[in-house]
Amino acid sequence: MADNAYTPVSEMSLWWLGQTTPQLIGQLILAENNRKVGLAYADEWLQNGFALSDDLPLSNALHLPKELDAAAGAVNDARPDRWGERVIRHIFKPVRLSILEYLYFAGHDRFGALGVSLHPSHYIAPLASAIATFENLPQMHQAIQNVLAGEKLSEAHARLLKPGPSFGGAHPKSLIEMDGKQWVVKFAETSEWDTPLIEHASMTLAAKAGIDVAHTRALALTQGHAVAVERFDRLENTRLHVLSAHTVLRAAGEPMGYPELSQLLRRYAQPSLIKQQQAQLFKRMVFNILIDNTDDHEKNHALIRSNQGHYHLSPAFDVLPAAQALGYQQMRVGANGHESSISNALSEVAAFGLKLSEAKDMVSNVQKVVATWPEHFAQLGVRAQEIEVLRVSMNRFKQ
User: Fold this and answer.
1) φ and ψ at 184, to 5 degrees?
2) CA angle 6, 164, 153 (to 5 degrees)
3) What's this model's pTM, rounded to 2 decimal places?
4) Taking Cα atoms as reference points, which of 114, 113, 120, 86 lies closest to residue 102?
5) Contact call for residues 79 and 247 (beta carbons, < 8 A)
6) Considering only CA atoms, which of 201, 196, 102 is closest in space to residue 144?
7) Nearest in space to 231 (alpha carbons), one of 304, 143, 338
8) 346: Cβ–Cβ under 8 A, 6 or more apart, which residues?
9) From CA 289, how far away is CA 209, in angstroms rounded?
10) How far separated are the first and last CA of the chain, in Å rounded?
């Protein structure tokens, strides 16, 4: 299904899709030997729009990222994740694969509220097609198996795969519609480990611990499960602007850490919600430590923009044990850097707006919930042998 109609270009247009009529944000420009994508705002957006991220201030300058192989600021969050890139290479086979191509081929159903068009003054939805429904799940699973095996896809199977519904991650996934809402459906790469069901169990356990999580459903397959995760970048039919923690921290010039992100919430969040948001982030950090979720990198945390211009933490997503007991988190935890320990989590509680006594109470409450994980996982159908493998890392902090 190579896109023979596509001819490589050095410029495309960027659009705001957060309202009924698309608005031109500006032009995306390929630069520095095709290894960077910059943004030049359109005049009308400069007058009536908002800065997409703090490192994309409203000015006439061409905004370029500092690093190679990236797009400027929030535009980088409109790229497909690693699985999406794999789908683009497999299905569309564009003759050039720069960041600009990945931005374009991520398609109309990409994460967030940004859109990319080849036309300089009109938004023409690229690769738009109907979103699959629950009835298409077996065919979608087969299409993903074909991609994993490097096999050719039929036109019907190719239409079931959406390259850009999420950011961060290499797990096979696509989109379906259930109950009038869009869900990202994630599949296991092998049948040996029912990762999707374990993710569903972990997310629902997190909800019991007072963590705001994305809604999930376990979907039974012929063998194992898929997990459906409700999109949080959509509110009914409205697209929401979402920034990854990576973009927020990079724009501020801060290290990729929980304390740093918590401090930025003081500037981003609605003033009356700052304390609640910081406490929520602290609980997520503690939960990740307790269940050995060491894949808690900065693209697995996000902020959602409100109509008033404030930001709040997105529901937690991509939360599940790594089962490796590596002893470190991807994000900096505290005084001992990335060390995965409760003592490290309690070392900089002031950065989360907490007193030490408050933080210890939160840790205790989360620990009590996490201690019930074997029963919770078993009740949801996680196999006994998988629970046994998880015990080593999940019971490290058993009370």
Assistant:
1) -85, 125
2) 65
3) 0.95
4) 86
5) no
6) 196
7) 304
8) 334, 356, 359, 360, 363
9) 13
10) 55
Tokens representing 242 are 């979402």
At 64 the pLDDT is 98
246: left (phi over 0), alpha (psi -120 to 50) or beta: alpha
In this prediction, residue 293 carries a pLDDT of 96
Domains of the chain, first to last: 11-116 (no CATH), 132-234 (3.30.200.120), 238-394 (1.10.1070.20)
- Per-position DSSP letters for 163-178, written without gaps between them: S-S-SS--S-EEEEEE
96: which 2 tokens? Answer: 């050039």
Span 287-310, pLDDT tens digits: 999 999 999 999 999 999 999 999
Neighbouring CB atoms inside 10 A of 92's CB total 20
Element (H, E) at 360: helix 356-370
CB of 300 closer than 8 Å to CB of 346: no
Task: Report the DSSP beta bridge partners of residue 11.
Answer: 29
Tokens of 278: 């910081």
Count the Cβ atoms, other than its own, within 10 Å of residue 227. Answer: 27
Listed as ranges, residues in the chain with pLDDT below 50 are 399
Question: What is the C-alpha to C-alpha distance for residues 365 and 44, in angstroms, rounded to an integer?
Answer: 50
Do 263 and 249 contact (CB within 8 A), yes or no? Answer: no
* Beta-strand pair 70-71/36-41: parallel
For CA atoms 202, 206, 207, 211, the dihedral sign is: negative
**Burial (0-12, 13-18, 19+ Cβ within 10 Å), 226:** buried
Structure tokens at 281: 């982030």
Going by the DSSP 8-state scheme, the letter that residue 67 receives in this structure is S
Q: From residue 280, how far is each of 196, 257, 287, 313 by CA, in Å? A: 24, 15, 11, 8
Distance CA 385, CA 64 (A): 50
Angle, helices 82-91/137-149, rounded to nearest 10 degrees: 80
Q: What is the structure's pLDDT at 399?
A: 47
Q: Give the model's pLDDT for residue 398.
A: 58
Q: Are 92 and 84 in contact (CB under 8 A)?
A: no
Which pair of tokens denotes residue 112?
């967030």
